[in-house]
């Protein structure tokens, strides 16, 4: 039964807020379009604004059209919904907006590549001088980047790029130089576009704080801004509301869903003396809470801090990759200097520069990686960059969060065991349980009702249902009192003795199942076993990971130990850690890494985000919380666990392609270098063979990595379509 400890006033009617002009342009049931001049501001981060609007209760999707200065919102069809959305729009002032930095506006354009292709197609019919001028203009940006590299005191790949195109251009090979520049630009364009597509602004994906909270004051409750809460305040949270603070329950009882924080798939009861976590959802009941942590000190805020710290540590990989590329510059410059000193022949020097090692090494690996990412996307896997591919291929330990990854996160009935089979056989007992439980919205109740419907068990008569929040239900049937709930409720509070059935109960618990107890007339009536649905491909996925070289499988969960160990034994996990909090998961991953393991972590909830950021590679399920997807290196766009094994196999293949292409590039270009340095290869021949070999390597990488089919591209497009901006919790 849901109840309020303190009578709260009705919310005031929506009223226009000053400062932000919003005009309703069009409206129909469940949808509105409003003119909002504020969305036309220069460099406005519209993604962030969409998330602000999407946090409004009842809003399912938001789309902003800056050109038309309009906002389109789809919302629930209910009384007051439209007014609530308009009030939300009017409440968003300029101080709450985010603006993109100047460098974030530098979106990669395909236009320069198109210009180079057009030039190469027309260069033969252009007057020589005009062709030279146009070609020089096209090459100028790359040459200037090389010059800036030298002026900054660094010898980087940009310098070699500039020399590669400059030498060819100065010797009259403007077409060859532009071709080289086109190939380099294509690789850079593919990489930049892919990285921008997969990137997310992490800080905006956090579980949003409520706009307001109910503060207990002078015997009543007043609604106050969230950021005014202080330590020691007493707040009230009721059915359907999120807890605004970490604190201690002072009064009342409630059924609380903590899945977004602890990963526990079944709601827990909170009573006086229990701790309660900010961000958890009150499913039933009402509690008064003493605030022990507020604002930046709450659990969700600490999770955000952990994510930021973990992500900062990961930048070392980028620096190592850049240093490797820079070393190729010194190698090529050294070889060119030796050639010039030995031969004094500028023609040979030009040939050597045109067969440099850096070009195929620089382009072959990124294109192979991007082709691999395209192939992965076609299989429902979004990989956030080549760094993630490399690291996933090195992983030797896979760590899984249980709820929502190994399981679907939804309970199902596995056992219906009558303890009075003569008068109450299985189907009759299940029908009674379903008839009573249909009055509840608890996950256990939904599972029992669904099972009874599937069995067509019927609907027996019963009396009024009384709810004991967090414990169970009470009614009458066949002239006797019926109790349904936990063993603690039936035995300790109601005196029904189940000890005679301990062997059967222990067997079910040891098998990883949770139990619902039934009694009638003070006697045990039956047991109903439930568990999360194990994904059909879970066992096969574990087998494939081991075949791909993964040596250790670990499961982490907030679930109770008995259930977790049952799942772990069934799937062959090496280690199982249960009853965990967010900090525990992070600690376990850090310990594995300190022991020398390369760790991949698969999770889906807000509580998993720190672990996803800490792991060498984080993977997030398709139905995971937005914050989990933001922190992950790999997102599974389809709700399919087998995609985890696909991702590992795809990354293994990518690294084989990169390794073999690098070997072939070094071998072939070494042969070209020898030919160029002894004068057996002209600059034109060097350019043709070098560029031809580079193109061949790129095509080989694309062909070996694979590209998505037409059907796969359509599926990717659907996956990229605008989603509800509401933050998911499980």
Number of helical segments with 4 or more residues: 25
How many domains make up the coordinates? 5
Quick one: overall form?
elongated
Number of strands: 24
- Sheet of most strands: 7 strands, antiparallel
Features of the shown structure:
single chain, alpha+beta, Alpha-Beta Plaits, Calcium-transporting ATPase, cytoplasmic transduction domain A, 5 domains, disordered C terminus
Can you offer a commentary on this structure?
This protein is of the alpha+beta class. The strands form four sheets. Strands 5, 6, 7, 8, 9, 10 and 11 form a seven-stranded antiparallel sheet that branches. It has a seven-stranded mixed sheet with strand order 12-24-23-22-13-20-21, with helices on both faces. Residues 11-19, 197-207, 309-321 and 707-730 have low confidence and may be disordered.
Summarize the structure.
By secondary structure, the protein is α+β, with helices and mostly antiparallel strands.
Secondary structure elements and their pairing?
Blueprint: E1 23-28, E2 31-35, H1 46-54, E3 59-65, E4 70-75, H2 81-91, H3 111-122, H4 128-151, H5 157-170, H6 174-198, E5 212-217, E6 220-225, E7 234-238, E8 246-257, H7 259-262, E9 268-270, E10 275-276, E11 281-293, H8 299-313, H9 316-343, H10 346-354, H11 358-378, E12 381-383, H12 386-394, E13 397-401, H13 402-406, E14 407-418, H14 426-437, H15 443-455, E15 466-468, E16 472-477, E17 480-485, H16 487-493, H17 502-510, E18 514-520, E19 523-534, H18 538-547, E20 552-556, H19 561-571, E21 575-577, H20 582-594, E22 599-603, H21 609-614, E23 617-620, H22 626-631, E24 634-636, H23 642-677, H24 683-705, H25 710-720
Parallel strand pairs: 13-20, 13-22, 20-21, 22-23, 23-24
Antiparallel strand pairs: 1-2, 2-4, 3-4, 5-6, 5-7, 7-11, 8-9, 8-10, 8-11, 12-24, 14-19, 15-16, 16-17, 17-18, 18-19
Helix pairs in contact: 3-4, 3-6, 4-5, 4-6, 5-6, 6-11, 6-24, 9-10, 10-23, 10-24, 11-23, 11-24, 12-23, 14-15, 18-23, 23-24
């Amino acid at each position: 039964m849901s109840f309020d400890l303190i009578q709260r006033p009705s919310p005031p009617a929506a009223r226009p807020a000053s400062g932000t002009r919003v005009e309703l342009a069009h409206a129909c049931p469940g949808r509105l379009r409003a003119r909002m001049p504020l969305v036309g501001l220069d460099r406005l981060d519209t993604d962030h604004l969409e998330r602000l609007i999407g946090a409004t209760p009842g809003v399912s999707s938001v789309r902003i059209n800056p050109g038309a200065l309009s906002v389109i919102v789809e919302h629930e069809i209910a009384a007051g919904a439209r007014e609530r959305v308009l009030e939300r729009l009017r409440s968003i002032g300029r101080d709450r907006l985010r603006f993109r930095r100047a460098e974030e506006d530098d979106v990669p354009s395909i236009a320069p590549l198109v210009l180079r292709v057009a030039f190469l197609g027309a260069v033969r019919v252009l007057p020589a001088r005009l062709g030279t001028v146009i070609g020089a203009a096209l090459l100028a940006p790359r040459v200037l980047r090389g010059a800036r590299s030298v002026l900054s005191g660094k010898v980087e790949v940009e310098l070699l790029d500039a020399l590669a195109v400059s030498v060819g251009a100065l010797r009259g090979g403007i077409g060859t130089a532009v071709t080289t520049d086109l190939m380099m630009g294509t690789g850079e364009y593919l990489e930049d576009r892919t990285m921008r597509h997969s990137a997310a602004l992490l800080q905006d994906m956090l579980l949003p704080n409520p706009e307001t909270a109910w503060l207990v004051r002078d015997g009543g409750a007043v609604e106050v801004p969230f950021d005014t809460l202080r330590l020691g305040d007493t707040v009230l949270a009721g059915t359907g509301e999120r807890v605004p603070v970490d604190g201690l329950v002072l009064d009342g009882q409630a059924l609380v869903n903590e899945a977004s924080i602890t990963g526990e798939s079944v709601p827990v009861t909170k009573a006086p003396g229990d701790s309660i976590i900010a961000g958890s959802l009150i499913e039933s009941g009402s509690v008064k809470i003493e605030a022990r942590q507020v604002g930046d000190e709450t659990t969700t805020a600490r999770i955000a801090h952990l994510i930021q710290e973990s992500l900062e540590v990961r930048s070392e990989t980028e620096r190592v990759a850049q240093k490797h590329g820079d070393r190729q510059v010194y190698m090529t410059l050294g070889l060119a200097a030796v050639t010039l000193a030995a031969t004094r022949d500028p023609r040979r020097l030009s040939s050597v520069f045109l067969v440099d090692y850096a070009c195929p090494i620089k382009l072959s690996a990124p294109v192979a990686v991007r082709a691999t990412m395209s192939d992965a996307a076609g299989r429902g896997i979004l990989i956030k960059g080549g760094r993630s591919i490399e690291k996933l291929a090195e992983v030797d330990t896979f760590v899984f969060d249980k709820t929502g990854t190994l399981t679907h996160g939804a309970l199902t009935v596995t056992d219906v065991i009558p303890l009075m089979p003569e008068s109450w056989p299985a189907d009759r007992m299940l029908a009674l349980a379903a008839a009573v439980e249909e009055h509840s919205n608890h996950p256990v109740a939904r599972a029992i009702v669904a099972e009874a419907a599937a069995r067509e068990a019927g609907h027996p008569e019963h009396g009024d249902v009384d709810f004991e929040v967090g414990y169970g239900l009470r009614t009458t049937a066949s002239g006797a009192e019926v109790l349904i709930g936990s063993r603690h409720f039936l035995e300790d509070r109601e005196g029904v003795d189940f000890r005679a059935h301990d062997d059967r109960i222990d067997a079910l618990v040891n098998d990883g199942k949770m139990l619902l107890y039934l009694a009638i007339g003070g006697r045990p009536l039956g047991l109903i076993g439930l568990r999360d649905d194990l994904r059909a491909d879970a066992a096969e996925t574990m087998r494939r990971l081991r075949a791909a070289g993964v040596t250790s499988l670990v499961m982490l969960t907030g679930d109770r130990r008995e259930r977790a160990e049952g799942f772990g034994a069934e799937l062959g996990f090496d280690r199982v850690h249960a009853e965990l909090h967010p900090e525990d998961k992070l600690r376990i991953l850090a310990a594995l890494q300190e022991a020398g393991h390369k760790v991949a972590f698969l999770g889906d909830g807000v509580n998993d985000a720190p672990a996803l950021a800490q792991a060498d590679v984080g993977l997030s399920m398709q139905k995971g919380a937005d914050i989990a997807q933001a922190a992950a290196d790999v997102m599974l766009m389809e709700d399919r666990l087998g995609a985890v094994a696909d991702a590992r196999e795809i990354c293994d293949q990518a690294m084989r392609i990169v390794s073999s292409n690098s070997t072939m590039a070094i071998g072939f270009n070494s042969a070209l270098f020898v030919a160029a340095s002894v004068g057996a290869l002209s600059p034109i021949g060097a350019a043709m063979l070098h560029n031809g070999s580079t193109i061949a390597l790129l095509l080989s990488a694309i062909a070996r990595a694979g590209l998505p089919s037409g059907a796969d591209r359509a599926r990717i497009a659907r996956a990229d379509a605008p989603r509800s901006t509401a933050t998911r919790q499980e």
